[in-house]
Amino acid sequence: MITPDRSSSRDSRFAVWIGTTLTLFIAAVAIGFVWLPSAQAGASGLDLWGAICSAVGLPNRNARIPVTVTGQPASSIAWTPETRLLLAQGNAAHGAALATTCNNCHGSAGVSDDAIFPNLAGQSVDAIYKQMEDFKTGKRDAALMGVYVNALSSQDLRDLAAYFAGFPSAFTHTSPEAGSVDSPARRLVEVGDPLRGIASCAACHGPMGVTPGAPELRGQQRAYFEEQLQALATGRRHNDISEQMRTVARQLTPQEISQLAAYYANLSATHPPPVGK
Ligand code: HEC
Ligand code: HEC
Q1: Which structural domain range is residue 141 located in?
Q2: What is the number of domains present in the chain?
């Protein structure tokens, strides 16, 4: 009786299996590490060798990494020692002479009568100066402010900043309307919302800490405050260095923006909130 040679048929099936696997492997390597990288080399800005190295995961010193320009800086101001030195030399008396044009809108003591015009009193020299330079250089939309700052020199702007920063803030005390300890606005101000990546407002705007150029918010006009947060959230205003403020504003809901505006405006004795608000 003839028995089929099972072991030799198993051997040949094994050889076919190994052969197919090897062929597939070589084809995959050729496609993944040679053909695809060479097809994409131009688009990714790498030469062929660079593209192959990058596909294999190896560093390639000769690769032509493209330098991408990611847009203009948010502001022309940088908080260097030179900027600080110049700000320290602001001449408030000269600022007072220039300020007669500003008073109609911002108030004679930097506290305005109309909620759409920001209070300047109580803000730091650096915050006031930065905004004026940003209006002048067009980094912040200067539809209204442009005509008042375009003709002034940077020294004039520093003098004006020194003058307005000298007025006491519209903020005088914490009124009870500012909200109970666990009001949503107060939580954002004092604790932030770590789960949404929101640092506490007080850590940058005071009183817990102050980031250079971060304006005083306590006692600020409510309508102005709300408008600015909306503008920062949508990117309509984009002059904050490193997107420090846009990152926060984008996370806030319209309701939170309105609550925060009310909270900060209420921290003012000079401007009590309208009845019923
Ligand atoms: C016709 C009204 C008007 C006049 C006059 C005016 N401003 Fe303004 N100012 C505004 C408005 C409105 C804003 C808010 C920005 C905007 O919406 O364009 C503003 C914003 C500012 C800001 C930014 C404040 C912040 O908290 O970010 C500064 C600083 C400022 N003005 C300073 C001045 C100075 C200094 C003068 C005088 C040289 C002046 N302004 C004249 C209406 C005026
Ligand atoms: C990481 C720091 C940081 C945090 C946190 C932060 N801010 Fe700001 N904020 C800034 C800076 C810096 C500016 C000034 C931007 C510029 O240079 O134009 C600013 C500007 C603003 C302005 C515009 C003020 C004006 O007068 O023009 C408002 C309103 C504001 N912040 C509200 C808030 C609120 C509310 C919170 C908390 C929910 C908050 N900020 C948290 C840094 C911060």
Answers
A1: 74-167
A2: 3
